[in-house]
Each structure stands twice: as C-alpha cells, then as structure tokens.
Amino acid sequence: MYDYYYEYDIYYFTDGPLCLVARSYTDTPDEAHFLRIEASGSQRAITDADLAHPLFLLAQDHLRNEGKVHLNWLSGKGDGYESVPAGSQHAAQQFSQAEPASRVGSIQALGNFIHPRSISMKIASTVFGVLLALIGIVWILQGLNVLPGSFMTGQIQWAAYGAIALAIGCVLLYVGRRGGRKPGAGH
What's the rounded mean pLDDT across residues 133-146? Predict the structure, then answer.
C-alpha cells in the first residue's frame, strides 16, 4: 500500500458544448495544469491553437485570480507539460477586461461566461465517511434492539451490516483527513 495519495481540484470551464478541463493539486496551490478539451461527449488533447481560444484565455484569468501563478498545459512534448506562454497572460487580461460585446458572442450571449466547478476529493471522502459511519451506527443499534421502530429492530444481520458500514465510513474519514500528495510524486 502507498503512503501517499493524490488530492486535487478539477476545474471545468465551459462555453456551450466546449469544456476545458484543468487540475490543481492541493499541496501546490499556486500551480494548475490544463489537461484536455471535451466537446460533445469526446475528449481531445489541447493544441497550440487552443492557447489563443477565448475560453482558454478566460480560464487562465480565472485561475490566476485564484492565485494559480504557474500554469501549464498538457502538450505531450518533453515531460508532457509546458508552461502556458507568457504572452497568453497579457492576452487573457486584455480579453477579460474587454467590453462584453467585444468578447466572443457565444460565451457572453448564452450566459455561459465561465463556470468553473471545483471538486475536492478530501471533502467528498470526509462527507461520505461521516454519513456512512452514522448510518452504520444506527443499523448496529437497531440490529441489537437498542433503537426500536423499524423492520431492522432486533435483526442481528443489520448489526453486522452496520458494523461493515461503520468500518467503511471510518476508512473514508481516514482517507479524507490524511495529508496531501507526497511531494515530487508526479504531475
């Protein structure tokens, strides 16, 4: 078993059917990596031409405003990642400060200006762990006839199911509360 795990936030920047996906590890909060583009249910790699796309520029601006000063994109060259070109930062700032009418029409007109969603594995694991542990405790108490009022009351198999749920909930809590990714463990 490994003594570390990868904890990160995923960002989805959308413009209609187009979606730009980025990732930021929690132990390197000043970095973010653009991973791929999704469109109409399929995925493709980011190309050099995509770096000038208005959605890419808006995504850069959003991530920089969140303190992500080191932006990379998955190019497939060298070690796989390249820095977002310095000129893109200036273009992103100009684009985001431009009047809405001068931006690409579909981004602003459809109301899909930019919708980042951040999903934290640590929070999800902790929440599900707590819920599962609580359900396990209730099932144990009902199975042992301590908590009456349901079809599970006095049924010993529900105490066993509860013990299993409690154990899984505790494992999820442990995973959710542990430290982040081991430094240098990859991109």
Answer: 94
Strand, coil or helix: 40:
coil
- Predicted TM-score (pTM) of the model is 0.51
Report how far residue 174's alpha carbon sits from residue 179's, in angstroms, rounded to the nearest whole number.
Answer: 10
Q: Report how far residue 46's alpha carbon sits from residue 56's, in angstroms, rounded to the nearest whole number.
A: 10
The angle that helices 156-177 and 121-143 make with each other, rounded to 10 degrees, is: 160
Distance separating alpha carbons of residues 121 and 119, to the nearest angstrom: 6
What Rg, from alpha-carbon coordinates, does the chain have? Answer: 23
Residue bearing tokens 């070109």: 85
Task: Find out whether 23 and 33 touch, Cβ atoms under 8 Å.
Answer: yes
Handedness of CA 174, 178, 180, 181 (dihedral sign): negative
Q: For residues 103 and 61, is the Cβ–Cβ distance under 8 A? A: no
Going by C-beta distance under 8 Å and a sequence separation of 6 or more, which residues neighbour residue 55? 13, 14, 15, 18, 20, 107, 114
Beta carbons within 8 Å of 3's beta carbon, 6+ residues apart: 182
Average pLDDT, the chain: 77
pLDDT-based confidence at residue 120 (cuts at 50, 70, 90): low
**pLDDT 10s digits, 77-91:** 877 888 888 655 545
Q: 11 with 50: CB under 8 angstroms?
A: no
